[in-house]
Amino acid sequence: MEGWLANPYVETVANYSVVVLSMILFLAVFEIVTKYKNWEEISRGNLSVALATGGKIFGIANIFRYSIEQNDSVIDMTVWGIYGFILLLIGYFIFEFLTPRFRIDEEIQNDNRAVGLISMVISVGLSYVIGSGIG
């Protein structure tokens, strides 16, 4: 297997495959922890949910970008990507905790675009901070 992954084309496909599968899994986790159904809300035109979900997608992809860049094996890249996702998820819960005046999920579900935008920026911003620490 090591011989195959020495080929940059095969390595790229391996990394891509792991990231796509991880993205699906991690978005399913976000679907479970939020009070709304991402794809139902997006299909109804809820821009706030689209912004928040887009931020999560970008955040996950950015974390994996750093992970691919910093690691030589698909296994190490995957482990660091999972670790980075867990930190991103913790960031989501901290954001919810630090806004006691209103519920983030409810505001996003109600298409409060200001909250959706802030949620997106937090996910994107945290992904850079998390990514910079990936070893």
Architecture blueprint of SSEs:
Layout: H1 2-5, H2 8-33, H3 38-43, H4 47-70, H5 74-97, H6 104-109, H7 113-132
Helix pairs in contact: 2-4, 2-5, 4-5, 4-7, 5-7
What does this structure look like?
- This protein has 135 residues and is mainly α.
- The protein has one domain (2-132).
- The chain has helices spanning 2-5, 8-33, 38-43, 47-70, 74-97, 104-109, 113-132.
Number of strands: 0
The low-confidence runs, each spanning 5 or more residues with pLDDT under 50, are none
> Which word captures the global form?
elongated
Calculate the terminal CA-CA distance, rounded to whole Å: 23 Å
Helical run tally: 7
Average pLDDT: 93
Rg for CA atoms: 16 Å
List the defining traits of the structure above.
single chain, 135 residues, mainly alpha, 7 helices
Short description:
The protein has helices at 2-5, 8-33, 38-43, 47-70, 74-97, 104-109, 113-132.
